[in-house]
Amino acid sequence: TKAAVVQLTKTLATEAGPHGIRVNAVAPGWIRTPMTDRHEPAAQQQAEAAMVRHSPLGRVGEAEDIAHAVLHLASDASSFTTGQILRPNGGVAMPW
Q: Burial code of 51-78, b = ≥16 C-beta within 10 A, e = fewer?
């Protein structure tokens, strides 16, 4: 399904672009949310420690980090951005 969302984003960007519509997607990494907080405390700490070890930024993401990414895409600052997948993940997964 992730590949389908990527392709849908690219296809819609191609079709909607001539009409001045930008289409992008946000694919966040591990983000601390009420859903992730439902894990047992020990499992939560272990998972977050693993994310911190693998993150060049050395921290777990927060909901505000994703909100800022979406705000950027919604702003004029990204007026030349379409068909992209934004991956706010603290650098944990960097596709080369």
A: beeebeeeebbeeebbeebeeebeeeee
pTM recorded for the entire structure: 0.84
- Taking only the tens place, the pLDDT of each residue in 36-47 is 778 788 888 888
Cα–Cα dist 49/51, whole Å: 5
Give the domains, in start order, of the chain with CATH numbers.
Answer: 2-86 (3.40.50.720)
